[in-house]
Structure to design on (948 residues):
């Protein structure tokens, strides 16, 4: 039986998805029996020119993590798509933008000015900025172009499967790898490695009635470990987040922040979360409503923490 | 001029490209390490809530999220002028020690280990963790178990194995039960044994191999730089808290500062051919990619930490510390590849310290949080990330909404040094007429792998564009508008 | 150069505001033609996704009109709208969508004049503000 040819790549990401893959623990030995890793910069030494020389669709599965932030991410995304039979958007960054997508609230110029001029430790009186092409005495050095907007993988190439999570949890990663090995994947376009309903279904806390007169920030209270966090006034995203992680954060006495993306059928996670929060405000008086929502001081960072690139608006409008 | 490109560099965290230029004689004229990645945390964190920063900034890096989680929460504590209770601090250190064990294990066995276990010239198809597991399966199994245990402890204390959620300004989100403490103690004991095993692997596989020892002591991999690391009040290595100590290339103390003083000591230089900035010692100044006491280039790595400290705070690690310096001829050690040895000593210290903390009566205490009451304003938090000194600096408004962020991250500290190491290794290994094999290029990559770089951490910044001018004319050819985009990327009319 | 004509998408509730809009028309009260009206059964039906989608598709402004507090045909619907739209408005500011571009107002079935003045007022403000920066 020929071994599966597997590739992995990180675009604009943090490396957490690589570590997440190692969470399969000793199952890596099982994987090594049935698969060869033909490209995965974190773990093996094959280079871009090795991928360029591969035949089209000769990679059986590519686990692609990271958002599309610059021209190199885009180029490699397209290259791997051509060389792979199955392309999986692994993890929140490639699926919906994740944390890097918060940069869609600003743009290249804003980031640029902050990093290379304004930051107090930067000493750059010449106003030097990195260039996509620069002549040094020995020759030309190139860098990828940094785009204004972060995109998801699916906004760049055709994606076969989506695995949510920042990062996906170990047992889900193995479930999907096993399905790949057995050849038992659902129809293309599916979200895999997660359930379909809201996280509340996996959360062990007791749920009674959701009616709050005030919202709290996590450092302001020590919540009751048994009761629903939303009912205690914490902004728990579980109500608008796909199940699959076994409610790790609520079990740790912290509200869910939404890293598994929206439940099945929800097209905009932030809007859903906002709407859920608004619906539990226990007041009909506009003055009181304003006072209650005053404590929500970063709506977009709270509601769209991981999903901004895949939201309806996708980015802030900057004049 | 002939050019050799290594793209991408592999078996590290993050993205990088090495360009080596050869002159007509086939000698290395210059080598550049270009970092092509950038995300902009220092900008897009503006407007976020300071208590969310430990969970947002830890996504700078999924290999060392715990480092950012800790530096961030310490900065947030400082912003709120709140002092967490002793149980909370010990829980954080417990989590952090478990993380160090797992992380240093990952680097030693999975990232850099293959170079030594399989050999630097081995076929890339086996020069990786799967090759290591196949060659030494017993060790391989222990590595997997160790990482699992480390992550299990992180999950118990921090809520999740990767990207923990447990730290908050004022303390932690939850405490430990006695049952959990016992389980941690049990695991800590086996982790100390594993650390000792790793020392043995280092001895048997690396130090007993004359070729590797020659490689470590080879002048191509030596730089006489300043060193930086965090030390406790006894000047012993501490990953979680203390003051930043800097020693000069002779090993003499050059500076010692508290977190809030960092701007007096560290500045960052910019080059147009990479996204990553180059920190240097302000009081010495930026003199370019050179070493020695006149150059502000410094290194912050496990080796640096051992160089700046007076010793290790736990007995087994202290004995190893002494053995290393005796073997390598005294302090400070300048050999970059000796960083691997220092890393293993730190692995041992982390395991011992983990055990100490698991036996501390405070660790199961009921008081794991102080609710902040002061008005938030500004704060700095510094920890030692495995890859170097990590600084988080936040300014918030009176509601704790972040206004400004400045980050100097582990690997960034070493950017200049890594560039120099790659160039020097290239110059030492590529000689006119000598065949340039894949293994030789890998030996150049080994120069950066010793630093265990984390480029996702290092780059949280941005890029520029080609100058461009657009002239808009009406149907008569008259100029209506002219837009220029300068080298800096800014569009002007 | 042609004057900028803002595109405003309006969500009007069946029982009050839609009828008020109708009345403005039959009474021949002059109101700016910039609002494209969509009839919903209740202002409480307006999901934030509708508003976001309207902006994404090119609207320069979005208007949600419901019954006055206490008059909702379904008793509570307009209170739901009040809560949700207040929070949405706060978030839109972070997206660079100025507060003049999104309005929640109460218009009864007999308030043709009020409908017209709201629409005229919003149109004038958006003309000054200019089109919403687009992103595809």
């Amino acid at each position: 039986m020929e071994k599966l040819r597997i590739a992995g790549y990180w675009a604009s990401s943090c490396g957490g998805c690589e570590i997440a893959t190692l969470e399969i623990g000793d199952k890596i030995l099982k994987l090594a029996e049935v698969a060869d890793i033909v490209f995965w910069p974190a773990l093996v030494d094959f280079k871009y020119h090795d991928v360029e020389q591969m035949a089209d669709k000769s990679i059986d599965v590519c686990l692609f993590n990271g958002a599309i932030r610059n021209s190199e991410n885009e180029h490699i995304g397209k290259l791997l798509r051509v060389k792979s039979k199955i392309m999986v958007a692994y993890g929140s960054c490639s699926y919906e933008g994740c944390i890097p997508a918060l940069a869609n609230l600003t743009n290249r110029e804003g980031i640029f000015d902050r990093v290379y001029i304004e930051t107090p430790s930067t000493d750059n009186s010449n106003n030097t900025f990195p260039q996509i092409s620069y002549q040094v005495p020995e020759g030309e050095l190139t860098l990828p172009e940094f785009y204004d907007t972060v995109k998801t993988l699916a906004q760049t190439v055709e994606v076969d499967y989506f695995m949510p999570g920042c990062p996906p949890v170990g047992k889900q990663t193995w479930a999907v790898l096993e399905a790949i090995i057995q050849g038992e994947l659902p129809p293309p376009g599916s979200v895999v490695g997660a359930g379909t309903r809201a996280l509340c279904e996996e959360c062990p806390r007791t749920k009674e009635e959701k009616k709050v007169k005030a919202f709290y920030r996590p450092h302001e209270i020590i919540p009751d470990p048994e009761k629903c966090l939303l009912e205690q006034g914490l902004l728990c995203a579980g109500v608008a987040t796909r199940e699959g992680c076994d409610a790790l954060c609520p079990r740790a006495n912290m509200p869910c922040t939404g890293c598994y993306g929206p439940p099945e059928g929800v097209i905009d996670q932030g809007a859903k979360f906002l709407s859920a929060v608004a619906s539990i405000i226990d007041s009909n008086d506009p003055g009181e409503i304003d006072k209650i929502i005053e404590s929500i001081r970063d709506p977009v960072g709270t509601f769209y923490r991981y999903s901004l690139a895949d939201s309806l608006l996708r980015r802030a409008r900057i004049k | 001029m002939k050019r050799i490109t290594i793209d991408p560099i592999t078996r590290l965290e993050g993205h990088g490209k090495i360009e080596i230029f050869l002159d007509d004689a086939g000698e290395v004229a210059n080598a550049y390490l270009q970092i092509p990645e950038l995300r902009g945390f220092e900008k897009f964190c503006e407007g976020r809530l300071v208590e969310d920063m430990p969970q947002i900034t830890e996504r700078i890096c999924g290999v060392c999220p715990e480092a950012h989680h800790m530096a961030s929460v310490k900065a947030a504590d400082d912003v709120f002028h709140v002092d967490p209770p002793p149980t909370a601090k010990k829980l954080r250190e417990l989590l952090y020690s478990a993380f160090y064990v797992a992380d240093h294990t990952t680097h030693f066995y999975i990232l850099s280990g293959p170079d030594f276990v399989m050999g630097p010239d081995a076929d890339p198809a086996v020069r990786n963790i799967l090759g290591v597991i196949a060659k030494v399966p017993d060790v391989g199994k222990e590595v997997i178990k160790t990482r699992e245990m480390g992550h299990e402890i992180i999950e118990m204390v921090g809520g999740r194995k990767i990207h923990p959620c447990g730290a908050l300004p004022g303390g932690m989100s939850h405490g430990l039960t006695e049952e959990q403490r016992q389980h941690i103690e049990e695991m800590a004991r086996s982790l100390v044994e594993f650390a000792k095993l790793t020392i043995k692997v280092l001895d048997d596989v690396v130090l007993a191999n004359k070729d590797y020892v020659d490689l470590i002591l080879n002048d191509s991999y030596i730089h006489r730089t300043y060193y930086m690391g965090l030390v406790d009040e006894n000047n012993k290595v501490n990953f979680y808290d203390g003051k930043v100590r800097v020693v000069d290339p002779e090993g003499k103390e050059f500076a010692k500062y508290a977190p809030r003083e960092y701007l007096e000591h560290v500045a960052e230089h910019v080059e147009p051919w990479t996204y990553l900035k180059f920190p240097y010692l302000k009081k010495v100044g930026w003199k370019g990619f050179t070493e020695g006491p006149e150059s502000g280039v410094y290194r912050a790595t496990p080796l640096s930490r051992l160089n700046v400290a007076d010793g290790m705070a736990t007995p087994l690690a202290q004995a190893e510390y002494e053995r290393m310096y005796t073997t390598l001829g005294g302090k400070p050690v300048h050999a970059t590849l000796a960083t691997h040895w220092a890393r293993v000593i730190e692995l041992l210290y982390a395991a011992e310290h983990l055990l100490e903390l698991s036996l501390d009566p405070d660790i199961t205490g009921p008081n794991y949080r102080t609710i902040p009451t002061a008005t938030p304003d500004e704060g700095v938090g510094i920890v030692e990330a495995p890859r170097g000194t990590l600084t988080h600096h936040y300014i918030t408004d009176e509601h704790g909404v972040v206004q400004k962020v400045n980050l100097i991250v582990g690997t960034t500290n070493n950017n200049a040094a890594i560039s120099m190491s790659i160039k020097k290794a290239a110059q030492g290994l590529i000689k006119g007429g000598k065949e340039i094999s894949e293994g030789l290029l890998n030996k150049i990559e080994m120069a950066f792998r010793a630093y265990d770089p984390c480029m996702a951490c290092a780059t949280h910044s941005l890029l520029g564009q080609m100058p461009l001018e657009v002239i808009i004319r009406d149907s008569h050819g008259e100029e209506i508008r002219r837009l220029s985009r300068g080298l800096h990327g800014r569009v002007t009319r | 150069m042609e004057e900028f004509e803002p595109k405003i998408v309006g969500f009007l509730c069946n029982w009050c505001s839609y009828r008020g809009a109708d009345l403005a028309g039959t009474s021949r009260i002059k109101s700016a033609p910039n609002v494209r009206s969509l009839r919903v059964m209740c202002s409480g039906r307006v999901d934030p996704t509708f508003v976001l989608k309207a902006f994404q598709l090119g609207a320069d402004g979005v208007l949600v009109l419901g019954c006055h507090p206490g008059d909702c045909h379904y008793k509570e619907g307009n209170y739901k709208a009040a809560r949700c739209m207040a929070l949405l408005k706060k978030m839109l500011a972070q997206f660079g969508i100025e507060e003049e571009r999104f309005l929640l107002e109460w218009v009864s079935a007999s308030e043709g004049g009020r409908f017209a003045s709201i629409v005229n007022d919003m149109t004038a403000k958006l003309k000054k503000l200019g089109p919403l920066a687009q992103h595809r």
